[in-house]
Amino acid sequence: MTKAAPVYVLGGAQTDFARNWSKEGKHFVAMMREATLGALEATRIEPREVETAHVGNFAAELYAKQGHIGAFFLEIDPVFSGLPTSRHEAACASGSIALIAASADIEAARYDLACVVGVEQMKTVDSTTGGDILGTAAWYEREAKGIEFPFPKLFGRLGDEYDKRYGLKDEHLAHISAVNYSNAKRNPNAQTRNWFMSESHAQHESKFNMRIGGRIKVSDCSQVTDGSVALFLASEKFARAWAKRNGKTLADIPRILGWGHHTAPIEFDTKVAESRDNAYVLPHTRQAILDAFKRAGIASAAELSGIETHDCFTTSEYMAIDHFGITKPGESWKAVEEGVIELGGKLPINPSGGLIGAGHPVGATGVRQMLDCHRQITDSAGDYQVEGAKKFAMLNIGGSGTTSCVFIVGK
Amino acid sequence: MANNNKVVIIGANGTMGAGAGCVLAGGGYSVTLLARRSDKAAQGLADAQNDARAEAIAERISLGAYDTDLSRAVSEAAIIFESLAEDLPLKRQFFELIDKSRRPDAIVASGSSGLSVAEMARGRSDSFRRNFLGVHLFNPPQVIVGTEVIPGPDTDPAVVKGVVAMLTRRLGRKVIVSKDMPAFVGNRVGFKVLNETAQLAAEHGVAFIDYLIGPHTGRAMAPLATVDMVGWDVHKAIVDNVHANCEDEAHESFAMPAYMNVALHKGCLGDKTPERGGFYRRAGKQVFVLDPKTGGHENYQKPAPIEFVEKMKQLHHVGRYGEALKVLAEAKGADADVCRRVVLGYVSYALNRVGEVAASSADVDTIMSYGFNWAPPTAIVDLLGAKNTVAMLQKLKLTVPAVVEQAAASGARMFSGGILEYGRTFVG
Fold first, then answer.
1. CA angle, A33 as apex, A309 and A349 as ends, to 5°?
2. CA-nearest residue of chain A to B172?
3. Contact (CB<8Å) B54/A35
4. Taking residues B87-104, what's their average pLDDT?
5. Mind listing the pLDDT tens digit for each residue in B46-55?
6. What's the CATH code of the domain at A79?
């Protein structure tokens, strides 16, 4: 791994994930516009300073019958006319792929300032249709076609695989859900911030908490969310000047300390067969984490102040705990029982509420996680701030553990 | 504030009582729902479970009846929340009972949407009056987070501070402190606009007014459909109260239209009387609309599109809210004049309440935006430009609020947030 030029994270903004943009009668470009204008205002960056834009989006073709999403960046401000833009897609990891592409632009010194926008408008369709659209993140023909809500079932099987190899109690999954909902109450942009949740509600099947895929109940699931997030990545040159004009020094500005990116076979059965003799159920996810650690020069998760992880279902957060090396493989339950993952715990996971609590606008999630890492490192996360956060990690996953992207952000 | 987690809700079988129960239990309080009979309280619990979408909320809720449980439950509670009908003698009767049993440090909050807090507390003990205040939630409380706290003349400032902190931090509410004047801030401003549109409907028709002054003017729902949702009885109680007890620049806007009084007398209460309806009546998929001239309901016919309205909707659709308001400012013709008068009338009336019933323009923004889901008035000023707003107000012969004059003079932006805060209130 060669040492690349540093990539600085200047901050950004997000839409309120509780909003329903279809009810507001709006096109997704309105979402991109609000997030990007909000990001410009929050960072005091002028539109004319933006040199390139990378947009993360999963399935606007299916949700909104619109492709060519990168071009919509130009609709935000006339100054953007002519700007090089592109759209990136890797299912729920689309936002991270946009971040990686923008980082590569900065590292290669092609541009000094990149805007990264994640966007997904999901409430354009009913829940069954939405579930079917999400099925295209798996091998649709083999794993999703004709199956109602295929993804809860796939991630239920991730739980089953843990159960088979190490044993898994659903009460630990329920606790993960309750922690995410509880954290979300502190996040002013979280979709579920005013929803009711309790440990006992999460534990029990009921008419409001139905089983929808094997061991997965409604409370184990992330949300169907409309949302957009925009942030800026910059070269050292731009970051230095930007810091100066904002009365800061370069040392005050968070940067991407390390990243990892691996793709596993798209079919869940193939993944499981491949990892049969491995201590880690998703070894490519594990490798993405190790790569990020190595690039960031950190030995283990003990050096992190917190993690924003991909809890599309409680089982994926359960998986992240041992894959980050917080516990030995198969012992994630120990971190759950000991309160390690809670706000105020030894290594808080998803202080924002994660995908379960904060919401999961698919193509925007990676960008939201990066923005939350930035908030934590700059001590601006408000009520969900992890005190004294120095280094924060994020794990963003596309498909059934298929595309894994990890970033570590710090100063 | 009493150091325990117990809350009693009086009038728990009503929509607001059950909703308050849902919100408080969701915030971790141990809630007792009280009603005239415990089976009525049980209905409140069922409603709270539906509101919370969780049967498990029942673990934090117990039930009781006034006769058998009120004095014991009240004697154990840290907070007593009254959610009875808007009937002053009835409320006073219960406050007398509560005064006899409550702990000296227990807070008593009334959920009234506009009755005088001072009147409700009159004759009660010193300790009661020090710990008594209004906590006005909007319907449905588990969804609408805007909340007004209304101290009475004797309320201890520390109690106000504690309740505001609890509502904000623990229950996630957006809170303002309002003066004890009829309808407080939210309903005073909101129902001025709603009643004005009801008056306009007498001349222009219901469907037309809901189209002309629809969601594109900065509201989640068209105004007359909103009145149907609120209920005509509630609407009448609010506007009559303000009309009788407030002398201000918009006094006549609070006069309940005669056609509404007639329909109300016949039992048209809006959505809560689906068979009689209100401005609208639905039968299966068919929609009927009230004709204010005849008092009957006719087949709903979509009004013919108006160019500037359609332009505004299209601009909101793609997030260009400032440009949409520019279209409103520049539109020609009588329809545009009517629309401008209502929108600018809202800005004028709302911001003219600053220093009267509201402490600041930020408070007015908060309650209109989070209580009504309407565009914050200062955001409208910013989008139109303060100088331009002053010129428009003057042309319409509407009061120019001092805070708008100041913004026009200084060039400062009025709204405290940005597009991410006001964007949701403009509907395409």
1. 10
2. A194
3. no
4. 97
5. 999 999 999 9
6. 3.40.47.10
Percent pLDDT > 70 in chain B is 99
Q: Where are the beta strands (DSSP E) in A62-108?
A: 85-88
* Chain B residue numbers touching A207 (CB-CB < 8 A): 55
**Backbone dihedral angles phi then psi of residue B65, each to the nearest 5 degrees:** -115, 155
The tens digit of pLDDT for each residue in A161-180 reads 999 999 999 999 999 999 99
For residue A238, is it within any domain?
A: yes
Structural contact between residues A370 and A8, judged by C-beta atoms closer than 8 angstroms: no
Q: Is A341 inside a domain boundary?
A: no
Cβ neighbours of residue B326 closer than 8 Å, sequence gap 6 or more: B384
Number of separate domains in chain A:
1
- Which residues in chain B are contacts of A14 at CB distance < 8 A? 420
- Provide, rounded to the nearest whole percent, the portion of chain A with pLDDT above 90: 99
The structure tokens listed for A320 are 């992240």
- The predicted-structure confidence for A192-239, as pLDDT tens digits, reads as follows 999 999 999 999 999 999 999 899 999 999 999 999 999 999 999 999
For the segment B321-341, what is each residue's pLDDT rounded down to a tens digit? 999 999 999 999 999 999 999
Q: Is B18 on the interface with A (CB under 8 A)?
A: no
Report pTM.
0.96
* Coarse DSSP helix, strand, coil percentages of chain A, rounded to the nearest 5 percent: 45, 20, 40
Amino acid at A76: I
Closest alpha carbon within chain B to A30:
B319
To the nearest whole number, what is the mean pLDDT of chain A? 97
Which residues have C-beta within 8 Å of that of residue A248, sequence separation ≥ 6? none
Q: Is residue A191 part of a domain?
A: no
Domains and CATH numbers, chain B: 6-177 (3.40.50.720), 186-425 (1.10.1040.50)
What pairing do the DSSP bridges indicate for beta strands B174-177 and B146-151?
A: parallel
Measured between beta carbons, which residues in chain B are less than 8 angstroms from residue A23? 220
Which pLDDT does position A1 carry in this prediction? 63
Of B172, B316, B419, nearest to A185 by CB-CB distance is B172
Q: What share of chain B is helix, strand, coil (3-state, %, to 5)?
A: 55, 15, 35
Domain region containing A241: 8-125+224-245
**ipTM for the complex?**
0.95
Are B318 and A200 within 8 A, CB to CB? no
**For chain B, what's the residue count?**
428
Residue type, B253: S
